[in-house]
Amino acid sequence: MVGDNIPRIHSLIDVAIARESQILIFTGGLGPTPDDLTTEAIASYFQTPLVENVAIVEDIATKFAKRGRTMTPNNRKQALIPEGATVLPNPIGTAPGMIWQATTNLTIFTFPGVPYEMKRMWQDTAVPHLKTRGWGKSIIHSQMMRFRGIGESTLASKVAHLFDRPNPTVAPYASKGEVKLRVSAKANSIPEAQQLIAPVVAEIQAIAGNDYFGSDDDTLASIVGSQLQARQQTLSVAESCTGGGLGSMVTGISGSSSYFLGGIIAYNNRIKTEFLGVKSADLIEQGAVSEIVAEQMALGVKQKFQTDWGIGISGIAGPNSDDTQKPVGMVCTAWASPDNNVVSHTFLYGEDRARDLIRYLSACDALDGLRRQLTP
User: Fold this and answer.
1) 245 in the same domain as 125
2) How distant is the alpha carbon of residue 190 from its chain centre?
3) 205 and 279, same domain (yes or no)
4) Rounded to an integer, what distance in angstroms lies between the CA atom of residue 103 and that of residue 88?
C-alpha cells in the first residue's frame, strides 16, 4: 500500500525496478479529484508527458449522459495517459486504466480501485494481453472448503499431513463462525487442476465428516435450502435475540419462497405466549432464555405456519443480561421436525463477544443444526 503521494509512488517504482520486476500493477488513484495521482506519478517518474485521449473523454461523457448526468471538467483528468501507453478500457466505470511498456523490461498496468471494475478489466483485457506475451501458460485453481462446528486448530491437527504437499497445497483459514481449507493446484488448465484437487478434497471430507458443509460460494443457507427442496419440505422460524437475522439469511437465497413460509420475531414474552403458545409458567420458572421455551417456540411457529420444520431461538446477545442473571452470550435454540420431535441445544458464545456477533453466530448455528438433521 502506498499513499496518494508522488514521491512515495516514485519510491515504489524504484523498488520494483531494483527487483527487476517485469510487471507492475497499480490499483486506485485514477479518479478526477486532486488526490488521484497514480497516472501523474508514473508519467513523471519516467519523464514522459501526459496526453489527452479524445476517445476516453467521449466515453466518459457518454456514460454520464446515460445516467442522466453531465460530465464535469475535472473528469477530463481521467483521459490523460502517458504518451505511448495503451488504454485499458473500463466497461463499467468512468476511470480507464492503461497498459504501458515503460521500459524494455517493465510493463505497467493501472486499474481503478473499485474491485468489481478492476476484476472485469483484468479478465477482459489484461489477461488476454499477458497471454499474448507468453504469460499465464499454467494456472492456479483453488477450491475453498467450508466447515462448521469444528475449531481451526482441531481441523488443522486432523489434516496436518496434507500441509506439506507441494501440489496441490492445503492451507487453513479462520473466518467469522467457520473454518476454511483452501486446496490449490497448479496445472495447465482448470480441468487438470480439478483432477489434482479432487482426491485431496475427498480425503478431507472423509476426515471432517458432517463438519464439512460446502465449498466456494456455498453457504449454510444455500445448503439448507437445497436440502429442503430435495425433500420437498418447508421451514418457519421463531426468533427472539436474532431479531429476524435467521429469516434474513434464509431469504437471502433466490427461490427460498418455495421452502420458507415465514417467521415471527417474538421479542416480547407476550408475543411468545399469545402467538407461539409458550406457557407462561415456563417463562416464569425457567426464563425466556431456556431450552424449554425455545422448544415451544419451534413447535409453535411450525404449527402456526403449518410447515414441516420449525426453529426457535431465544438468547441474551448483550451487552447486559436479563433479570434472570444468565450470562451474556447464552442462546437456546430448538428444532421441531416433521414428526413433531423437538431437539434443543444451549450455545455459550462468551460474554466478551459483541452483540452483533452473538446474533450472527446464533443464526448460523440454527441453520447448521437444521443442516445436520437434514443430512442423511
Assistant:
1) no
2) 23
3) no
4) 18
Answer whether residue 137 shows pLDDT above 90. no
In this predicted model, what pLDDT tens digit does every residue of 285-331 receive, in sequence order?
Answer: 999 999 999 999 999 999 999 999 999 999 999 888 777 779 999 99
CB neighbour burial string for 89-104, b if at least 16 within 10 angstroms, e if fewer = ebeebbbbbbbbebee
Torsion sign over Cα 323, 310, 299, 148: negative
Q: What total number of domains does the chain contain? A: 3
Tell me which amino acid residue 261 is. Answer: L
Q: Output the nine-digit C-alpha cell for 100.
A: 504501458
Nearest to 337 by CA among 372, 291, 288: 372
Count of residues making up the chain? 376
pTM for the whole thing? 0.79
Mean pLDDT of the chain: 95
What is the domain extent for residue 230? 220-374
| Residue-wise pLDDT tens digits, 53-99 | 999 999 999 988 998 998 899 999 999 999 999 999 999 998 999 99
Cα separation, 235 vs 258, in Å, equals 10
**CATH number for the domain including 32?**
3.40.980.10
